[in-house]
């Protein structure tokens, strides 16, 4: 769980194995990138009204995304098995290419795009752990392919759009968000747990010793924080500078640009934060007069109390005399921290659960089977992870349980604090004013 569940991050190959799973058969340790072998199947899945789906296209897991060569035709071959006496390490060292040791029958099947080897015609880049085709076919590779008598390969933007649509589907984006939560646990602990606790204690201490300046400090800090977050969203959305997030992982050609749905979400968040920032600044300007009135009352110690000054001074006196209020919030905080850790772990397990099942397809997905030594058109459909209705109900119940537990602990904490402050105010408030 420390690195995110691999089911949420990586895809499935044509055998139903999760890429990167060292316990798969064959072992796929470090082979984390999903690559679609047959470009014509990718094209067919993107054609309008086609019954063929990309999930049924033949795919394997690789260490890196293949790119075509300029002086010769490169190949990506299926996992070595049967009469191909190579280990997985040897297969990787050969750049997944063992075309020259194939039998004439296997070579002929490969020229028909039925495997076990497939030509590398289109360059590809790592987009969220899947090799995204770039619809710029290599002229040199195509020329070599045609000279060898290979079947016609579709050169169309559809091969790019088909994989792009698959990667940017709503379910894929949701899985990536959940996987990011699992990977970002150090950030969540520091920024979501320890830092707020530290700042809360500092804020309570400042109320105790700098009561007159606290309204100004709070308003200024809040506005600076809102502006900082807004600028950060603008940076990551690409509207300021050149530091926009990119779905491409690792080094790549700077002229290759791939658009991700997450960028839309960031831009929407940037627009929302802009409205929040404007509203925050306008509200701060509107309450400047009330803050001046409150602080002047505190400094003059007048007998007539305004609401802001009264609340601030009473809070400061309560914290000064009932010092346990500074320590008490740590108790519900610790309970909620433990609860959230359990909740996040359970949520990741629920979202990564489901059963890997083979799809039902009636389309042509024939491929050469190295074990049976022939082209097999049966049981060649791809695999997908399916969620049962019980898992969906468990996820919704889990979300409701988190919301209910959070509100319950916050309500208990607020009741205790309010009771302490009210009790002090009712019993000693008149004495303190006089």
UniProtKB/TrEMBL annotation:
One of its GO terms (cellular component) is plasma membrane. The keyword Glycoprotein applies. It is found in: Cell membrane; Membrane. Keywords: Glycoprotein, Membrane, Transmembrane, Transmembrane helix. It comes from the Eukaryota. It is a multi-pass membrane protein. The chain crosses the membrane at residues 184-207, 213-235, 268-288, 330-351, 408-426. Belongs to the CTL (choline transporter-like) family. This is Choline transporter-like protein.
């Amino acid at each position: 769980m420390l690195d995110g569940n691999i089911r949420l991050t990586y895809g499935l190959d044509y055998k139903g194995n999760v890429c990167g799973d060292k316990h798969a058969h064959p072992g796929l340790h470090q082979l984390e990138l999903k690559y679609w072998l047959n470009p014509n199947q990718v094209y067919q899945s993107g054609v309008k009204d086609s019954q063929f789906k990309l999930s049924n296209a033949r795919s394997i897991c690789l260490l890196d995304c293949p790119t075509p060569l300029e002086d010769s035709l490169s190949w990506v071959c299926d996992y070595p098995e049967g009469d191909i006496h190579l280990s997985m390490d040897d297969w990787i060292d050969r750049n997944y290419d063992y075309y020259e040791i194939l039998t004439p029958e296997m070579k002929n099947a490969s020229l028909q795009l039925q495997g076990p080897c497939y030509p590398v015609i289109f360059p590809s880049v790592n987009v969220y752990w899947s090799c995204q085709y770039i619809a710029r076919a290599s002229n040199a590779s195509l020329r070599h392919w045609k000279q060898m008598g290979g079947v016609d390969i579709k050169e169309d933007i559809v091969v790019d759009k088909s994989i792009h649509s698959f990667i940017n589907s709503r379910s894929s984006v949701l899985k990536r968000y959940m996987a990011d939560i699992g990977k970002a646990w150090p950030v969540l602990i520091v920024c979501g747990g320890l830092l707020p606790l530290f700042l809360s204690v500092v804020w309570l201490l400042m109320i105790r010793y700098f009561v007159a300046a606290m309204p100004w400090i709070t308003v200024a800090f809040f506005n600076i924080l809102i502006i900082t977050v807004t600028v950060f969203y603008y940076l990551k959305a690409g509207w300021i500078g050149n530091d926009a997030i990119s779905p491409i992982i690792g080094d790549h050609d700077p002229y290759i640009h791939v658009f991700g749905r997450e960028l839309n979400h960031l831009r929407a968040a940037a627009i929302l934060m802009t409205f929040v920032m404007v509203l925050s600044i306008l509200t701060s300007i509107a309450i400047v007069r009330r803050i001046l009135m409150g602080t002047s009352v505190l400094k003059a110690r007048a007998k007539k109390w305004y609401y802001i000054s009264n609340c601030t001074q009473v809070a400061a006196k309560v914290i000064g005399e009932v010092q346990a209020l500074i320590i008490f919030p740590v108790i519900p905080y610790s309970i909620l921290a433990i609860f959230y850790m359990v909740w996040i772990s359970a949520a990741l397990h629920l979202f990564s659960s489901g059963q890997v099942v083979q799809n039902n397809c009636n389309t042509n997905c024939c491929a050469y089977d190295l074990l049976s030594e022939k082209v097999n058109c049966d049981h060649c459909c791809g695999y997908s992870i399916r969620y049962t209705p019980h898992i969906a109900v468990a996820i919704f119940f889990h979300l409701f349980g988190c919301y209910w537990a959070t509100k319950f602990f916050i309500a208990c904490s607020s009741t205790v604090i309010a009771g302490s402050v009210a009790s002090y105010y009712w019993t000693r408030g008149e004495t303190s004013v006089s």
